[in-house]
Structures are given as structure tokens and as C-alpha cells.
């Protein structure tokens, strides 16, 4: 799941692939702003056929958080 999230970040949000690790913080390390975070959530919802609530989106601090959430909640 991590590799799939990394691919999304690199291809869709132009994040440097060398900076994407499970521990990398989306905002502080990768420079993702709130609009890009919303875009990431939408991309994940479409790709994994799920709905990410605002409360859950607030828990996405690291790339690993996103991967863990998708692994637990995707259909």
C-alpha cells in the first residue's frame, strides 16, 4: 500500500520520490498544503472505492498514516 501512495504523491502532487518514506510528514516534510491534502483524499477515494471523512483526514500526518488507513478501510 505504501508504494501505491508514494506513486500517487509523486505523479499527482509532484512530490520528490526520494522524500517519500512511511515516516515522512505530509505537511512538514513533503510540503503538502490543505488543498493538496484534499486532492490526495479524493484520489484515494476514487482509486480505493471508499469515503474518507473529515475526522479521518485530520489523522493523516505521515505517509504511513495514509497507507495504514487505506489498508484497513479499502474494499
Plain-language structure description:
The model has no long low-confidence stretch (mean pLDDT 95). Helix 1 crosses helix 2 (34-48). The longest helix is centred in the middle third of the chain and has 15 residues, at 34-48. The radius of gyration is 11 Å and the shape is globular. The protein is built from 4 helices and no strands. It has a single domain, classed as Non-ribosomal Peptide Synthetase Peptidyl Carrier Protein, Chain A, CATH 1.10.1200.10. 19% of the residues are buried. The chain has 75 residues and is mainly α.
Structural class: mainly alpha
Number of helices: 4
Largest sheet, if any?
none
N-end to C-end Cα span = 13 Å
- How many domains is the backbone divided into? 1
**How many β-strand stretches?**
0
According to CATH, what is the class? Mainly Alpha
Q: Outline, from the CA principal axes?
A: globular
Strand content: under 5%
What are the main properties of this structure?
0% strand, 75 residues, Non-ribosomal Peptide Synthetase Peptidyl Carrier Protein, Chain A, single chain, mainly alpha
Amino acid at each position: 500500500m505504501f508504494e501505491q501512495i508514494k506513486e500517487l504523491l509523486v505523479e499527482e502532487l509532484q512530490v520528490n520520490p526520494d522524500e517519500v518514506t512511511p515516516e515522512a510528514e505530509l505537511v512538514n516534510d513533503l510540503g503538502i498544503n490543505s488543498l493538496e491534502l484534499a486532492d490526495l483524499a479524493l484520489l484515494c477515494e476514487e482509486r480505493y472505492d471508499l469515503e474518507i471523512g473529515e475526522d479521518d483526514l485530520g489523522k493523516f500526518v505521515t505517509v504511513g498514516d495514509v497507507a495504514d488507513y487505506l489498508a484497513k478501510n479499502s474494499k
